[in-house]
Design goal:
The structure is a single chain. The protein is α+β, with helices and mostly antiparallel strands. It has three domains: about 190 residues, Alpha-Beta Complex (Aldehyde Oxidoreductase, domain 3); about 325 residues, Aldehyde oxidase/xanthine dehydrogenase, molybdopterin binding domain (Aldehyde Oxidoreductase, domain 4), CATH 3.30.365; about 150 residues, Aldehyde Oxidoreductase, domain 4. Helices cover about 30% and strands about 25% of the residues. A seven-stranded mixed β-sheet has the order 4-8-2-15-12-13-14, with helices on both faces. Strand 17, helix 9 and strand 18 form a beta-alpha-beta unit. Pfam families: Ald_Xan_dh_C, MoCoBD_1, MoCoBD_2. Keywords: Molybdenum, Oxidoreductase. This is Molybdopterin-dependent oxidoreductase. InterPro entries: Ald_Oxase/Xan_DH_a/b, Ald_Oxase/Xan_DH_a/b_sf, Ald_Oxase/xanthine_DH-like, AldOxase/xan_DH_MoCoBD1, AldOxase/xan_DH_MoCoBD2, AldOxase/xan_DH_Mopterin-bd_sf.
């Protein structure tokens, strides 16, 4: 795996050497992750490591049916088992408020509510119906298997397109419709552009159903303190402690101040753990009823069947173009198979709407229209998972562009370059304001990285030998730094609020608390780098604290590639205030004007006066205990500052490229080369960026070739283990070629943009286009992911039967 940095003249140069001279900046350097020694030596503390005195263990009774009426629940045999303490159903939890989706906050969205345990009807395989508490997890599972549920199976709704038809069976009769949202938006002269086009390309593409499948499944440990009005203490494997508290408290019927959320080390999340689930409510509720702490740890079947799914979207994509290849209009229709419930808080629009809103991407097309529908079906709910709807939207658009190139007999790279926007700030037809990027440069870098001209010669020679190679490209724009402005631009009109608190302790060390959360991204390292630079202190003196609503300042959590932007900005705002107080203190101590003081490596120096300095520890002691000799603002405000930060819209960009070989006898796809060009603005830590992009690319390989959450025609879930739900291993992920370009953001502190999802967004389309390119002699048209060997062989057999296949060698 290689990493190369490229900095345009407008960008800050990123140094990747680990050496650091006196006063050199930490940002831009590959500082080793400070959390790794703890995690690699087994000293991490994950949810299942938490044990409380008197703790019980929970197991959920779940529906084996896609759609069924619950006639009766008989817990008597379970309760007779020694070690089982209690069995609770929805009737025992009728004092809870319903869980309501955030639909009312968006125009055109139907609000849906549910009870944490199914009351009368189960709506998908894995829907929780009852919970068993026992002295051990094994006894809880044994008790679960003894709970008798009388079911009345109902016809399942499994086809999202059929669910939109008049008279279709309703998944949730209370709503009166299966379609929880229909949205449309059109800008420019779309119909005229299509009517006047020299050529129209129209494709249908189905982006398959996948999920995050983190190494650590979900889990909750909860206790209820029955004093002073009652208080819940909840440990959760979550990405968003404060937001989870805000959404849980009304359902539990308590003020937020009586609900504490603690997120320990989290073993991967990828968006799945930024939803609110029934188990999040049920476990603290039954801890209250039982009068004892309760732990629930999700098993893999539950994770796959009843967590959240993602990207199951039927896309219709149309491109209007002139004969010379100028694209004049885009039109898309995106239908998300939403599953049985509207996920909380993001709803299935997190897939469908963002696919539509960002339809134009990095192309200068001014006539754009989209429509989205979100029908309910009797499957697991759709929620936010890495790349969200940008992935299926990217697939539909980029596959259609390659189809257009074939129809016009134009080179697909040149066709894209012909239609791309420039590097300057740009406003899209739907009003998103890009903060500058390297759109053409990224595509050109990817093209050169695969040695495009030489590849075409090699491809032609291989075809003469009966081997089929292909290359595909996928330039992208990724919305990052998800906050109020960017969310509104993306169709989510909700305010966001994020803060950081910076404190210089009496000994000169620094404590930073943030509402962000790290579950693999290395925040303890990168945020310490930022803090050290902003304050002029050694990085080793900085401690980053997060994950506890009792001790960390408020923030909306970590998802949507937001932490680099929000973390840098909020720390910067707070650190500037603290640093100003420090230099004023130092000025008083050194009898110098504070404007002549500089802080470098934890020492305050007077500019131009060698040897006149004071270490930060002495400054801090003076700040805390210097009495009236201290400046007024320090006496009033101390050495702590807390600031919010809400940036403008920030957009990363880049390009993925894939070179593949398809074995036409077996349908197996071998990825020969996978390239990622990433422009995430100023790079905080090249090694961490490399890791984020590499992991996202692996995720994209899985989406393109392997990952499929499958249901039988009767709604039975058949992907309930990692034997059946396949994601990439080292045998499927090739050596990766990673390049970075730095185009600093014009609107964020430090010029930073986000980075976490780019590879997942770009890789699937690049791989699909490469496979289509490889199989172009057969006239094969790929219409869905994952491209399993069985699916590709089916397409090839069809080509052979209609006579379009070339002669075998």
């Amino acid at each position: 795996m290689t990493l190369e940095s490229t900095a345009p003249t407008s960008a800050a140069t990123s140094a990747t050497t680990p050496q650091r001279g006196p006063g050199a900046r930490y940002v831009g350097r590959s500082v080793q992750r400070v959390e790794d020694p703890r995690l690699l030596s087994g000293r991490g503390r994950y949810l299942d490591d938490i044990t409380l005195p008197g703790m019980l263990h929970a197991a959920f009774v779940r529906s084996p049916h896609a759609h069924a009426r619950i006639v009766a629940v008989d817990p008597s045999e379970a309760l007779a088992l020694d070690g089982v303490v209690a069995v609770y159903t929805a009737k025992d939890l009728d004092w809870l408020a319903p869980m309501v989706s955030t639909g009312p906050m968006r125009e055109g969205v139907v609000a849906q509510s549910r009870t944490p345990l199914a009351t009368d009807v189960s709506r998908h395989v894995g829907d929780p119906v009852a919970v068993v508490l026992a002295r051990s997890p094994y006894l809880a599972e044994d008790g679960r298997d003894l709970v008798e549920v009388e079911w009345e199976p109902l016809p399942p709704v499994l086809d999202p397109l059929a669910a939109l038809e008049p008279g279709a069976t309703l998944v949730d009769e209370a709503l009166g419709t299966n379609n929880i949202s229909h949205l449309e938006q059109s800008v420019g002269e779309v119909e005229e552009a299509f009517a006047e086009a020299d050529h129209v390309t129209r494709i249908r593409f189905h982006s398959g159903r996948s999920t995050a499948a983190p190494i650590e499944c979900r889990g909750v440990v909860a206790e209820y303190e029955d004093r002073a009005g009652g208080r819940y203490n909840v440990h959760s494997s979550t990405q968003m402690p404060h937001l989870l508290r805000m959404l849980m408290a009304p359902v539990l019927g308590v003020p937020e101040g009586r609900l504490s959320i603690k997120a320990p080390d989290v073993g991967g999340a990828f968006g799945l753990k930024c939803s609110v689930f029934p188990e999040d409510i049920v476990i603290p509720a039954v801890a209250r009823l039982a009068g004892r702490p309760v732990k629930w740890i999700e098993d893999r079947w539950e994770d796959l069947a009843a967590g959240v799914h993602s990207k199951d979207m039927h896309c219709t994509m149309e491109i209007a173009a002139k004969a010379d290849g100028t694209m004049t209009a885009f039109r898309g229709h995106f239908v998300t198979d939403s599953g049985a419930y509207s996920s909380i808080p993001f709803t299935p629009l997190v897939d469908s709407q963002v696919a539509g809103v960002y339809l134009s991407s990095c192309y200068g097309v001014q006539n754009v229209a989209y429509a989205v529908d979100n029908p309910l079906t009797n499957k697991c709910q759709i929620g936010a998972v890495r790349g969200v709807g940008w992935v299926p939207g990217q697939l539909a658009r980029e596959v259609a562009i390659d189809e257009l190139a074939r129809a016009l007999e134009k080179d697909p790279v040149e066709l894209r370059l012909q239609n791309m926007i420039g590097p300057e700030v740009y406003t899209t037809p739907f009003g998103q304001t890009y903060d500058g990027g390297s759109y053409t440069a990224s595509l050109e870098k990817a093209r050169d990285s695969v040695d495009y001209a030489a590849f075409r010669e090699r491809q032609a020679k291989a075809r003469e030998e009966g081997r089929y190679l292909g290359v595909g490209f996928s330039p992208f724009v990724e919305p990052t730094g998800w906050a109020t402005s960017s969310a509104a631009a993306g169709g989510l009109p909700n305010g966001f609020f994020d803060t950081a608190s910076v404190t210089v302790e009496p000994d000169g060390s620094v404590t930073v608390t943030t509402g962000l959360h790290s579950h693999g991204q290395g925040h303890e390292t990168t945020l310490a780098q930022v803090t050290a630079d902003e304050l002029g202190v050694p990085m080793e003196s900085v401690r980053i604290v997060f994950g506890d609503t009792d001790t960390s300042v408020f923030g909306m959590g970590t998802y949507a590639s937001r932490s680099a932007v929000l973390g840098f900005g909020s720390i910067h705002e707070s650190a500037v205030q603290v640093k100003d107080r420090l230099v004023r203190l130092a000025g008083a101590m050194l009898e110098a004007d504070h404007t002549d003081i500089e802080l470098v490596d934890g020492v305050a120096n007077v500019k131009g006066v060698p040897g006149k300095s004071v270490p930060l520890q002495q400054i801090a002691l003076f700040g805390y205990f210097g009495g009236p000799a201290r400046p007024d603002d320090v006496q009033r405000d101390g050495l702590t500052a807390t600031s919010g930060y809400n940036p403008g819209e920030t957009y990363a960009n880049g390009c993925g490229a894939a070179v593949v070989e398809v074995d036409v006898r077996t349908g197996l796809v071998t990825i020969e080369q996978l390239v990622a060009v990433e422009d995430c603005g100023v790079v905080l830590n090249p090694t961490i960026v490399k890791g984020q992009v590499a992991g996202a690319l692996a995720n994209g390989i899985g989406i393109a070739l392997l990952e499929d959450l499958a249901y039988e025609d009767n709604g039975e879930f058949v992907s309930g283990s990692l034997l059946h739900y396949l994601y990439p291993s080292t045998t499927e992920v090739p050596d990766l070629t990673l390049h970075t370009i730095e185009t600093p953001s014009a609107v964020s502190a430090g010029g930073v943009k986000g980075v976490g999802e780019a590879g997942t967004i770009s890789a699937p389309a690049a791989i699909v286009n490469a496979v289509m390119d490889a199989l172009s002699p057969f006239g094969v048209v790929v219409e869905k992911t994952p491209m399993t060997p069985e699916y590709l062989r089916e397409l090839l057999r069809a080509a052979e039967s209609n006579g379009s296949a070339p002669a075998r060698h």
